[in-house]
Each structure stands twice: as structure tokens, then as C-alpha cells.
Design goal:
- This protein has about 450 residues and is of the alpha/beta class.
- It is about 30% helix and about 25% strand.
- Helix 12 links the parallel strand 16 and strand 17.
- Bound molecules: 2-acetamido-2-deoxy-beta-D-glucopyranose (4 copies).
- The site of one 2-acetamido-2-deoxy-beta-D-glucopyranose has 4 residues, from helix 12.
- This is PI-PLC X domain-containing protein 1.
- GO terms for molecular function: phosphoric diester hydrolase activity.
- It comes from Cotesia glomerata.
């Protein structure tokens, strides 16, 4: 009954469009060295725009970038002015450092009061024509988008929504990047921790777990208490461990506790180290997950038309965490684990071949490659380095460049062509694309299409 009583939160921002073009901000995955320093410059602001004016209307001529909302302060000076005629490609990478800012609306500290709805970080970009303000947008977070849009989205099954996700979600370093990190080009796929990903609006996490011998403690090392068990599990990038799994679990738990209408999909997709022929380790991991999340875990269900439960059904159950598990035997043992989720992964090395591959999967006439036992499936929208390059080619592009090569085009491809067919889409360095906003807008469009008339 949740959907009937509660306040309507205005989400005008999400749906707003101007007659004649729009502007949006992203964050670059690239970095630059600083002379004579171990630090590097990364996470620079990118301005993107798309002008779509009827022939009788003259298009905007300027974009100004601000460090605060220009609407609220007429004397605010821009950080940067772009003359659009000089940049026909609709994109400009600034040297304004976004860094790792604190999150607005109380979403920074865990445990404080958090305000629902979208919130702006400090950067704004505005379109002008002859110095007349037309429209603006900000770099923003959407911490509660699912529940904000409950009127529109409540009747949609989870398998029909477009859900923004991250690839190798736990492979980040939260502190400032150093040259050493930057040169390890194939290790990190994200530059925000899982808490920050969820607060931005990411709802699908792709996790690969490794099992390692416990850390050596002085004194007791044979006890198998809870802490001890969780210390053995790590988030891996292939065979390299990156972050303790406990950190990711804590972030998801904290987020579900404060964002009480959001649904999160946790995909334990692969187990690259320490699980081969070790069912007891899978079991221990599953038991630990149940202990951490117990009452929040939604049991699998195929729902109407095999598209899974609707958001209303999920909210009514009070259980908002879906855990998919990439080992069938373990799924058979625990009735709350969802069957392995299909990731559509092209193993492509160039932007063009990746887009062709994704286009054939999404727009082709063949059945979508989802696991019939799981209503969810994920498009992996990132490039993959060749093993040869990782090992032998120090001049290879690296994951940051590879993300940069595809992220902008992904925003427009999903927005204009692929949104309707897409369920989950997972990317690298997700702030370099606009897929959270595209997903939210696409879900509103999906809710308006008659064929999605589920009861
Ligand atoms: C507006 O911007 C100016 C220039 O940046 C600044 O000095 C002033 O304090 C701002 N006013 C408000 C109300 O924020
Ligand atoms: C173990 O304890 C000794 C003495 O208390 C200490 O010097 C040493 O650093 C400790 N080692 C670890 C790994 O904590
Ligand atoms: C893990 O250790 C911490 C402090 O060392 C303790 O507060 C916590 O209760 C322990 N958790 C479990 C599940 O044993
Ligand atoms: C990416 O988008 C740009 C701008 O629309 C276009 O010129 C370019 O060809 C696209 N790249 C690929 C690989 O499709």
C-alpha cells in the first residue's frame, strides 16, 4: 500500500527538456601528470551538449560553466565560456577538477539525515543565446530515483526496467590517485566506492570474489569466528585482489538502510581465485551474506511473463536486495539466491566493434540471451583489453582510455536507440557517461508505453 499514501516528490528535473537542445555534465576517466609530483590530475569535468533546433529557431551560441547555480546568483562569474561554433562535436573536456567531492543532501556521511530526490554537486553548465539564459543542468546524484518515481514505475517488473550498473564494481581506489595507480592501467574499473556509486543512482553491482588465507594475527589464528571468515573474501579483478569484500557489503548494507525504497542487485558473478572445487567456501560466503542481509533479501521469482516481480511487489514485500550467484550448485542449496545472471559480454577491443556487437544483440531479431531462470540480464558496455596488451604492452591504452573511448557514445546510443530493449547496463568509470539519467528517463518512457500494462 506504500504507493498510495505518500507524498509526491517533484521530479521535474528528470523530465525537463528544452525546445532546442540540452547540456549535461560528466566526469572524465582520464588523468594527467603533474610535473615533479607523485600526484596526478584526474576526474576533470566534461561538458556535453546536443542541439536539436527546428530550422526556424537559431541555436544557442554559448555554454557557461559555473561553480554554483547561476539561476540563484546573477553576479556569479563563469569558470569557463565555450563558443559552440568552435566545438561542433558537442563535447568539451575542461581542466576543472571535480575530484572526490562530498555528496549533497546529507548523502555523504553514513548515519546522518538524508534527503530524497536528486541533488546537485557544485558544477553547473548553462546554455545561452545572445547572452540570454536558456537552460542549465548540474552534475548530480539520484540517490532515491526508484522510489521518487514510484507512481510511474511501481507497476513495471524489474526485468523490464532499464537499470544502471557498474562493471567490476569493487575495483576502485577511493583516495586520490597517484602515478603508480595510474600506471597500473588494467586494474581499476571505477573511481568511486560502492556507497558513492549507489548514491549516484547505480543499482546493479558486478562482483568477482576471491578467497584467500586469513590475514595472520598475532595470537589466535585458528578460530573461525565471523570476522575471521569475512576477512578471507576479497573483491578481485581477475587474479588480483583489490578491496576486502566486507567493505562492499558494508556500503550496500548502509545504503539499503537509509534509502528505504531502493532496490539493489548484487551479482556475485565469478569466483576467480580459491573457489575451484571448493563448495564449502561457496557455502561459507552464502552464509555470511545471509547473516549480513537476512531480512532484506528478496527471494527469486519469475513474475508475470518471466520478467520478475514488479517494483510495487518488491516494496510490499519489504525485501529490496536481489543477490544473483554465479554457481548453480550453491543456488540449489539456498532458496534465496537468484540463478546465475547472463552478462552479454562482447570481448571487443574497439569502440566500433563493441557498438556493432551490442546493436546486434539488442536490435537483432534473435531472442535476447537471458537465462530463462532469471528475469534479469546485463549488457556489459565496456571494452576489454587483450591479454597480450595487459602483460606485454606498456603503451597500451589502459582501462581509463578505453572507457573514455566508448562512454560518450553509449549515452546517446542508449538514449536514442537501445533503451527499450535494455534491462541492466554496466559500464566502466560510470561518471563518464550519462546512463543513470538516461535510465531514469527511459523508465518513464517505458511506463508510458501501453504494452507494459502489467496489473
Ligand atoms: C554570488 O556570486 C558572487 C561572485 O562569485 C559572490 O561574491 C557572491 O557572494 C554570491 N552571492 C550569493 C548570494 O551567493
Ligand atoms: C606481532 O607482535 C609483535 C610483538 O607484540 C609485534 O612486534 C609485531 O609487529 C606483530 N606483528 C603483526 C603482524 O602484527
Ligand atoms: C568483528 O570485530 C569487531 C571488532 O573487532 C566487533 O565489534 C564485531 O562485533 C565483530 N563481528 C562479529 C560478527 O563477530
Ligand atoms: C561516436 O560519436 C561521434 C559523435 O556522434 C561519432 O562521430 C563517432 O563516429 C562515434 N564513434 C563510433 C565508434 O561510433
Amino acid at each position: 500500500m506504500i504507493g498510495k499514501i505518500l507524498l509526491v516528490i517533484l521530479t521535474a528535473d528528470v523530465a525537463r527538456s528544452t525546445q532546442c537542445g540540452k547540456v549535461w555534465l560528466t566526469v572524465s576517466s582520464l588523468w594527467r601528470p603533474i610535473a615533479a609530483s607523485d600526484k596526478v590530475i584526474d576526474a576533470e569535468l566534461e561538458v556535453n551538449w546536443d542541439l536539436d533546433c527546428p530550422t526556424n529557431i537559431e541555436p544557442p551560441d554559448n555554454i557557461k560553466v559555473f561553480n554554483a547555480d547561476p539561476i540563484h546568483n546573477k553576479s556569479l562569474q563563469p569558470e569557463l565560456i565555450l563558443t559552440l561554433a568552435e566545438h561542433p562535436e558537442g563535447y568539451y573536456r575542461t581542466n576543472i577538477e571535480v575530484g572526490r567531492p562530498s555528496l549533497p543532501g546529507g548523502w555523504d556521511a553514513t548515519g546522518g539525515a538524508t534527503l530524497p530526490g536528486p541533488h546537485c554537486l557544485k558544477h553547473y553548465a548553462a546554455l545561452y543565446k545572445n547572452n540570454i539564459f536558456l537552460t542549465s543542468s548540474c552534475l548530480q546524484i539520484w540517490p532515491t530515483w526508484m522510489y521518487d518515481l514510484r507512481r510511474q514505475l511501481g507497476r513495471l517488473p524489474i526485468g523490464s526496467l532499464m537499470i544502471p550498473g557498474t562493471h567490476n564494481s569493487g575495483c576502485y581506489k577511493h583516495e586520490d590517485l597517484t602515478r603508480k595507480d595510474a600506471f597500473q592501467k588494467y586494474l581499476l574499473t571505477q573511481d568511486r566506492d560502492v556507497w558513492t556509486q549507489l548514491v549516484h543512482g547505480i543499482r546493479y553491482l558486478d562482483i568477482r570474489v576471491g578467497h584467500y588465507p586469513p590475514p595472520m594475527h598475532n595470537g589466535s589464528h585458528s578460530t573461525d569466528d565471523a570476522n575471521h571468515t569475512s576477512g578471507r573474501f576479497w573483491v578481485n579483478h581477475d587474479v588480483i585482489r583489490i578491496n576486502p569484500l566486507a567493505t562492499i557489503i558494508r556500503d550496500v548494507r548502509n545504503f539499503l538502510d537509509v534509502a528505504r525504497g531502493e532496490v539493489v542487485i548484487l551479482d556475485f558473478h565469478r569466483f576467480p581465485v580459491g573457489f575451484e572445487s571448493r563448495p564449502s567456501r561457496h557455502r561459507r560466503l552464502a552464509i555470511m551474506l545471509y547473516r549480513e542481509f537476512g531480512g532484506l533479501i528478496l527471494k527469486p521469482s519469475r513474475g508475470v511473463d518471466g520478467l520478475g516481480p514488479t517494483l510495487n511487489e518488491i516494496w510490499n514485500s519489504g525485501r529490496r536486495l536481489i543477490i544473483c550467484y554465479g554457481d548453480k550448485h550453491t543456488v540449489n542449496e539456498f532458496d534465496w539466491l537468484w540463478p546465475p545472471l547472463t552478462q552479454v559480454w562482447g570481448n571487443q577491443q574497439t569502440a566500433q566493434s563493441l557498438f556493432e556487437y551490442l546493436n546486434s544483440v539488442l536490435m537483432g531479431s534473435e531472442r535476447k540471451p537471458r537465462n530463462t531462470l532469471n528475469p534479469l540480464w546485463a549488457i556489459m558496455a565496456e571494452l576489454t583489453p587483450r591479454p597480450f596488451d595487459i602483460i606485454f604492452n606498456p603503451n597500451g591504452a589502459g582501462l581509463r582510455q578505453m572507457a573514455d573511448a566508448v562512454n560518450r557514445n553509449l549515452s546517446s546510443l542508449f538514449q536514442n536507440e537501445w533503451w527499450k530493449q535494455t534491462n541492466i547496463v554496466a559500464t566502466d568509470f560510470f561518471l563518464g557517461n550519462n546512463l543513470i539519467q538516461v535510465s531514469i528517463q527511459s523508465n518513464i518512457k517505458k511506463s508510458n508505453i501501453a504494452q507494459w500494462s502489467f496489473s
